[in-house]
């Protein structure tokens, strides 16, 4: 039975979870390479309308009571991360506030992730965390999932996760039901081009409740795609199906979900979006559907807290060699730098660089004499980002407000 707790303090719970996860990061083994600590703060404001008030669209779960057709949520999140050449550690905590709901749920979640790169193609990691929800009764859940990631190419990542989850639900009779589950997931992300990302996911779960010994389980698959027509706009679509069955029931609960989202990114720290989602469920006592439309904005602030990366020695990024040019850039972080530019028609992700003993990455390109604009892009599993060139690099502004490097081959 869950004890009667004092009033739920969201801010205090957030900071306690973040402090605990930060201490966990500090206890994990560190790599001997240079490191960098960063802190992030995010705030999302979402509002919209739902057709089925029994299905909470923000919590994405079926609730025991109805809410209002209008939905509004405020989601603050804070996090801390440490990146090094082979390791990536991160912890974050978030909560959701519901200004329009008289029976506002009290929700807080914290999670931590660790990843260690064994080779350019293989890495191992683990993720864990917990969620606390109060909506009339109390629900708490915890999970721990070791993982293995394989990146056979710079545009493909396959991740396998498996582990245990626990969920505690307080019933109306004053007792607590514990649900223990085993969970396995397989995720594949693929970039057909640098502006299109696709992702497929399959999961399997098997569990049992402690009170009655009732067995339950589920399976599901989902597909998601994101397209960036420009650097400031993205379109995302997803669809998924799953089924859940309890031992005491002969009928399986089948769920279907789909959604479409359009986002505008006028600044790195600002994202405005509009989305629509539809859900349907074939339950034991009938079927139920829901459609909701929402608009919102997300704000993000990221700041480097500290770093031990040594200042790179002054050198030239581009150096003419026989039959071409050698490109050498300093970089000490996750992922592999790739160079693209006029010499390959700006095809992405570009030519990969090779790490040297002094912390730089280099490649040699066979190109004729001339002047070439280029940029360096970091490919890190399913993430892509441009790398800022060192201050001593020769640069020129491009037609889109960015900055390109310039190589001259005599």
Automatic annotation (TrEMBL):
Organism domain of life: Bacteria
Entry-linked CDD domains: E_set_AMPKbeta_like_N
Database matches in InterPro entries: Ig-like_fold, Ig_E-set
Protein name: AMP-activated protein kinase glycogen-binding domain-containing protein
The organism's taxonomic lineage, starting at the top: Bacteria, Pseudomonadati, Rhodothermota, Rhodothermia, Rhodothermales
